[in-house]
Structure prediction request, 265 residues.
Amino acid sequence: MKSHIPRKRFGQNFLQDQGVIADILNAVSPESTDVIVEIGPGLAALTQPLLERVPHLHAVEIDRDIVARLNERFTPQRLTLHNADALNFDFGALAREIAPGGKIRLVGNLPYNISTPLLFHLASFADVIDDMHFMLQKEVVDRMVASPGTTDYGRLGIMLQYRFVMDRVLDVPPAAFNPPPKVDSAVVRMIPWPNLPHRAQDEALFEEVVQTAFAQRRKTLRNNLKGVVTDDDLATLAIDPGCRPENVTVAQYVALANHLAQHMS
Prediction:
């Protein structure tokens, strides 16, 4: 079989470092009863060792050539391939089909060129997900796990930390891939909160408030939310109107959105 030429339009960088693969498998720690869905199986660097731990695996892959290669290598009894774009894939429907009454585990080396919209898409299925382990650009993982008051803290981290417990698992150098990407990578673990520690009454409004707050990072919260909230509103919630958006916690953004929801109803 001819070797597969990585395609830039699909953001393909194939993991090949056996030590890194072993570290990821140890982090995932798959059990034989787990229902696992792999996003972007590529050349099966993770697929093969996962199938040594579980009897069956589902995988979502956009590249038809890779799907054909994997279908030649693995039987349908071991691997079910979904030739689809993960960005538009209904993981909720799949979970209801393959894990009725239960939850699925997601793993994968996500395409770096669509990682942020893909993460937001996957977050919408948190209620049917047990956990997620993803390889991503290190810079994105930095933003996902960032704490308030840091330069990496922003909309992405707030929206994901609202719904998930976030944990950086390991950093991965470019040399672990073929072809090597021009950036460092990292693996992140995301576990949906069993009960949201801070629940937004209107999640669309919460997302809108966060997005508006970070419209211009260098401006104060007062300036970015002008016309949305008053200084009195912020003072009521013990939020300094003169602070920058990165100094406001997830809990405070939720409280602010809930305050607005109550006054809009």
DSSP finds eleven helices and nine strands in the chain. Confidence is low (pLDDT under 50) at residues 4-11.
